[in-house]
Amino acid sequence: MKIHKYDTVIVGAGGAGMRAAIEATKRSRTAVLTKLYPTRSHTGAAQGGMAAALANVEEDNWEWHTFDTIKGGDYLVDQDAAEILAKEAIDSVLDLEKMGLPFNRTPDGTIDQRRFGGHSRNHGEAPVRRACYAADRTGHMILQTLYQNCVKEGVEFFNEFYVLDQLLAEDPETGVKKSVGVVAYELATGEIHVFQAKAVIYASGGTGKFFKVTSNAHTLTGDGQAAVFRRGLPLEDMEFFQFHPTGIWRMGILLTEGARGEGGILRNKDGERFMEKYAPVMKDLASRDVVSRSIYTEIREGRGCGPEGDHVYLDLTHLPPEQLDAKLPDITEFARTYLGIEPYTDPIPIQPTAHYAMGGIPTNVEGEVLSDNTTVVPGLYAAGEVACVSVHGANRLGTNSLLDINVFGRRAGIAAAEYSAKADFVELPENPAERVLAQIEGLRESTGSERVADLRRELQECMDANVMVFRTEQTIKTAVDTIAELRARYKNVSVQDKGKRFNTDLLEAVELGNLLDLAEVMAISALARKESRGGHYREDYPTRDDVNFMRHTMAYREVDADGNDSVRLDYKPVVVTRYQPMERKY
Amino acid sequence: MSTPVLDKVEAESAASPYITVTMRIRRFNPEISAESVWQDFLVEMDPKERVLDALHKIKWEQDGTLTFRRSCAHGICGSDAMRINGKNRLACKTLIKDLNPEKPILVEAIKGLTVLKDLVVDMEPFFQAYRDVMPFLVTKGNEPTRERLQSDVDRARFDDTTKCILCAACTSSCPVFWNDGQYFGPAAIVNAHRFIFDSRDEAGEQRLEILNDRDGVWRCRTTFNCTDACPRGIEVTKAIQEVKRALITRRF
């Protein structure tokens, strides 16, 4: 076991982590721990754009953006946070441009902007061009630009270091929990490393791999969420998961909403532009939850395409090939590579794909993690998909996640470094790596009969079948029961690779443990929310219930005297500033 | 647009598509043996699946010790460059049907970087070469309040080299790099190109001096292996030639 000491430790090196690192490294001695290499992070898979009311191509302003974000989130958004997001969006985009990001340009040489779902002029009048973009690889360019600037600033990375535990110390008098550091597993050697740090920032991304059809990378297994949850800290709004309307049929690979922003149209088996029925104004550019539900409604009512009627088409055939080549080169290539389809002439089969966790580790607008509805955990921060500020509420708007990682990554980086400049190190516990050692050795030495791949497949199939776009009490209960069974079986899981060196077999077993814990939180949170709001749609409660449920879910892990754990739910009020909830129409 | 009807993809998927494929993988684990060995695995595959899917099937159903890097699984993160039937490719962008699955499919680690275990290589020298070319925008003073302006034409000048995902398929396909690990390699030059030809950048001269080094662009023998290997379709050899020309003319 090795012990390291840094002022600030950042867990994760995607957009949020590296944006935080650029700020924190200037102000404090900082280490960035990532289980991958920084440029492998899933920020790089984001395609369409980053929202900011630059008004480069038409009239726009941050207030309209704030409203769209709150409406898009079905009024579960904390409105003070959304206002910060929309205001700071403008500087965030300009900062990235100055760091070198090669945005597409207008004929005037300014940053070009395009339409995206749910972003509108003057509170819903018509779609507005707000998404700043670099072809259909905006996320790739953000990730590269941030990494380039990390190289420039000399950010210190620990690559392929997998953080497994968050160390907390409780003040014996006040009972306040403080962050002490993290415990990580070095993939190359199997060695355990303890990082004592005044401040820790989680920026480890999402948890989409508990679904089968997903746009998420194999590595998105909710590691940060699980690490803090197991230490008794809450997770917020975990029932809200976004299903992106246009994943490649059966594979789930993302095809950007920018395709519809450029004029692409969704069609059913009769060739009908069905979104006109569901969203007369915004049509194919309604918010993602609305479009995904519409697609499944078409499929359920027998208007899906293909022999099994299980998908619809994204039609780009009416767009000029030059436009596709210039604006959508990557996604058209995906269609050619994975489906053997030529998007110039043939429509692309798509289905909704599990895409983004709106919920996560609760934070305030400075990125400080909360241990209940109001109490801050000194020294602990989170930003990006792992966190819940909440700027996305019940449904995130497209292009607001690349924005979120930049605005709140930066804020968390500054806040954490300023904290570590003033704070002292908290003493490490006697055996800081105790839990991790037990976990790792337990898995390595287990002779149990269960296999990781079987349990993971069963989990993913259960989640797809029961807690996707449509949910009912019955389906969610099925999920809760199945997950409980799988968690019991997980105790009997073993790995074949018993070695120390690059043991990815062991890594996948750890990741599965995280997915199972978070799936349980999601299902239990979803069961209790007896209403439909944003990405959480209950067929047995099809309307929004602002009286009982305009509040955030806060899930806590409870452990009884026998060591059995369970999930306890509590609720937190939504911050409302100027927008009262209204009926949501697109 | 015409009314969508059953198209050819759907018609094909109606019949059972599975075939048995032999995956012949070069295994290496210094915890067990100092020598690498070829090992065959038989897997049931739909030919439209990826080589990465075959590797996952082996790891998940047959041999959990098989070790490789991967993340996004659709050619954007750059984790899974490997040598497949002697050619550098991304396992997640290579479909079984494009490899003649009648014969064993050979999979081994990319060349020129130290193999650590199975298909995993030490990427550190690769990233060091990248860091050495100053892969970041350098500007001097006069910072505008808004964005820097850049014409469409100037933006297009370096578009191709912004696509790089640092997967090392190009660098590890280069015979010069195999023989001399000191050579910067194609990927580092591509990333230097991306800034040298960016109208906003002001450190082109410095980067050119770095690449004028003994281990710089002049080592390139124009074999086009890098261009063939690039999973992003970047014209790597052309980019290297443009850097060479810029060194001679000092115009960029």
CATH C-level category of the largest domain in chain B: Mainly Alpha
Q: Which segments of chain B are poorly predicted (pLDDT under 50) over 5 or more consecutive residues?
A: 1-12
Question: Biggest interface and which pair forms it?
Answer: A-B, 74 and 69 residues
Mean pLDDT of chain A: 97
Q: Quick one: overall form of chain A? A: globular
CATH topology of the domain at 241-355 in chain A: the name is: Flavocytochrome C3, Chain A, domain 1
Taking all residues together, what is the mean pLDDT of chain B?
93
Architecture (CATH level 2) name of the largest domain in chain B: Orthogonal Bundle
Q: What is the number of independent domains of chain B? A: 2
Rg from Cα of chain B: 21 Å
The major sheet of chain A is characterized as: 8 strands, mixed
Helix content of chain A: 25-40%
Family (chain B): Belongs to the succinate dehydrogenase/fumarate reductase iron-sulfur protein family.
Enzyme class (chain B): oxidoreductase
InterPro entries (chain B): 2Fe-2S_ferredoxin-like_sf, 2Fe-2S_ferredoxin-type, 4Fe4S_Fe-S-bd, 4Fe4S_Fe_S_CS, Beta-grasp_dom_sf, Helical_ferredxn, SDH/FRD_Iron-Sulfur, Succ_DH/fum_Rdtase_Fe-S
Protein name (chain B): Succinate dehydrogenase iron-sulfur subunit
Explain briefly what this protein structure is.
The complex is a heterodimer of chains A (586) and B (252). Chain A has 586 residues and is of the alpha/beta class. Chain A has helices at residues 15-27, 62-72, 79-99, 138-153, 223-229, 258-261, 275-278, 288-300, 321-327, 329-339, 400-422, 434-445, 452-466, 473-490, 504-528, 546-549; strands at 2-11, 30-34, 50-51, 113-121, 126-132, 156-159, 161-170, 177-186, 192-202, 235-236, 241-248, 265-267, 312-315, 348-357, 361-362, 368-370, 376-382, 387-388, 450-451, 493-494, 551-559, 565-573.
